[in-house]
Fold:
Amino acid sequence: MVFSTIDYIAQPKIFIGKRTFIIGTLLKFHSKSSMIYMVSILCGSFGSTISIFVLHFMFRFFALERRGRLYYFKGKYLAWWFIFPFFPGCFWGYITYLFLQPNDLTSSIVLDIISPLNLDDYSYISATYFLPSGELNLSQFLTMFILMNLMLITILTVAYFAIGSYRLINRILKDGESEYSRKLQKQLFLALVCQAIIPSILMYIPVGSLCILPFFDITIPNLSTIVTATYALYPAFDPLPLIIIVDSYRNVVRRSVFRIRPMCTGIQGRKVQPVPDIIS
Structure:
């Protein structure tokens, strides 16, 4: 919700070239400083999103483990799980704002990339890996190195809990539980695989490519458009595996749809009786 709101206000554009990527927004009704804040918050929302992704797989693993650890997702502990994703998001946005702001060393490169657009009409953050002199831009390189390692940590954490969940599901399937339980676990496993693939395709690969490829001076046509579109699509696609694959979720959706259709049909086909005139 935060990302969608700020994305609507800022309407950021992504530019890539000369070992640099830029996230800029056209100045309309806001100052340059306020728009830099908004772009930084957009970047911070990505940090929060991948943290939520980790919590999702952690919860799934604890549920399959059946050792009572779901206790820590209830009661007084529950609020902390909702608050936790804001910390990596704030850190991500803060160092983006602090180290990727416009500066005199990189402004000439940015100007060349976005030309013939007027740089004064844009507020932006940028990661310029090499200065015009050819030297490594150490501060921005280290900033991106930290952010990429944070993303790598979430990938490895998700992989750990995903593999652990896979092993637990296999163990449950071999323990001779009821047919219903075995069928449910197979469906949950398939949904788990899909929910690992979706963010990889829609988030990690596009954003990782955007951040890493410019360092090697590799440009992919329309990559900026792909990154913007896939990140916006992720919240809509994420719950679909559970809704489509797991019977209990699918049946609830189906019943809801068929409950609405007769209501609509009944309203459309109902004849309206005239109201008698009781006023003499």
The two ends are 57 Å apart (CA to CA). DSSP finds ten helices and three strands in the chain. The chain has a mean pLDDT of 83. The domain at 2-253 is CATH 1.20.1070.10 (Rhopdopsin 7-helix transmembrane proteins).
